[in-house]
Amino acid sequence: MHSDGEATFRALGEVAAQHGLRRRTQANEQVDTAIALERYGRRPLDLLEQWGWLAPDVTIAHLCDVTDDEVTRIAAAGVTATHAPGCDVPMGWGIAPVARLLAAGVPVGLGTSGGGSNDAGHLLADARLAMQVSALVGPQLPARQVLGTATEGSAVGLGRPELGHLGAGSAGDLCVWDVSGVADAGVADPVAGLLWAFPGRRPRHVVVGGRVVVRDGRLVTADEGELAARLRERLARTPA
Q: How far is CA 198 from CA 147, 161, 163, 177, in A?
């Protein structure tokens, strides 16, 4: 959040309030904390609070460098968090204390960030990374809990609590994974095995809003080969 000042954050807050939109920013990567202290003499969350951005309609990504007091303030404000280890770890920005955030009552979703800091953007692979690095900053997160952040936790952060789970009132979205292969042989908990055994797999079927978009591992709404060719062509025209 150190890239913009108070005027920008207040203007965005006014636009969001006018149109009933949720707000999202990122804060408290280690580099963000250092720059905010140098530029403003204050920590990022202090600035966000002053600028009206610690509120229930706000989701904050990263949060790698947070104190216990800041975790308490985030929870009290009703802010949701996004954990993005696939970006934070390779960029050297630290590891968010997900267990502490969850224990304080902060809803935590899982994000992948963009191509600038995470080339793959594979949610299962990033969920596995989140599980693996969690023990470096707190208790080891169980696989099922991490999958919960990737599904229900992320949906809450989007303001869409009807998503991220199957049940009465769910939106007809589902992802089907094949756990019958060699990689899953001997796995006691097939749900946890999605992360522990073979996180790079593609889904077998994907249904969005009741519409099948992936069947037997292939996109059915567009030609994957054509999409890849067009992307390669576009990248070839982009100056280095």
A: 14, 28, 25, 11
Q: How many helices (H) and strands (E) does the chain have?
A: 11, 8
The pLDDT assigned to 176 comes to 92
Length of the chain: 240
Alpha-carbon dihedral angle through residues 162, 165, 168, 172, given to the nearest 10 degrees? 80
pTM tops 0.85, yes or no: yes
What 185-190 contacts at long range (C-beta under 8 Å, 24+ apart), as own/partner pairs, is 189/143, 189/144
The answer to whether 74 and 101 have CB atoms below 8 angstroms apart is yes
Strand, helix or coil for residue 202: coil
Residue 225 and residue 240: Cα distance in Å, rounded? 24
Identify the band that residue 47 occupies on the pLDDT scale cut at 50, 70 and 90. Answer: very high
Instruction: List pLDDT tens digits, range 75-118.
Output: 999 999 999 999 999 889 999 999 999 999 999 999 988 777 77
Neighbours of 125 (CB within 10 A): 18
